[in-house]
Amino acid sequence: MVSENPFGPEVIAAVSRHMNDDHAADSLVIVRGLGDTPDATAARMTHVDGTGVDFSVTAAGVDRTVRVPFARPLTERPEIRQEIVRLYTEAATALGLEPRTED
């Protein structure tokens, strides 16, 4: 298990900004399909570490934090993208959606 976050504040901010600016709909798919919040109406990535990703989620008019764990511990920045794509694909499939394949 990863005991310390392998990603510094600048990586966390950059990844969160990219997801929130360019992939907000994908974050919503992830929390609906894998975050036990199928009724979510909004999701913003707020944190990423070696074991998972946190989203600020609005569901039923209430904001809360939802954590979606990674399949395995991550230690390198390029692994984040690979794992987020995997989470999105798995969530879309679970929701009966056709996953996008472009970035």
Can you describe what's shown?
- The chain has 103 residues and is α+β, with helices and mostly antiparallel strands.
- It has one domain: Split barrel-like.
- The protein has a three-stranded antiparallel β-sheet.
- A hairpin with a 3-residue loop joins strand 1 and strand 2.
- It is globular and about 35 Å long.
Q: In percent, how much strand structure appears in the residues?
A: 15-25%
In total, how many beta strands? 3
CATH homologous superfamily grouping: PNP-oxidase-like
End-to-end gap? 29 Å
Contiguous uncertain segments of 5+ residues: none
Q: How many discrete structural domains? A: 1
Order of helices and strands: HHEEEH
Write out the strand line-up for the largest beta sheet, numbering strands in chain order: 1-2-3
CATH class descriptor name:
Alpha Beta
Mean pLDDT: 95
The name of the CATH architecture is: Alpha-Beta Barrel
- CA radius of gyration: 13 Å
| CATH fold field value | Split barrel-like
Q: Major sheet, described briefly?
A: 3 strands, antiparallel
Structural class: alpha+beta
What overall form do the CA principal axes indicate?
globular
Please tally the helical runs, counting DSSP H or I stretches of 4 or more residues: 3
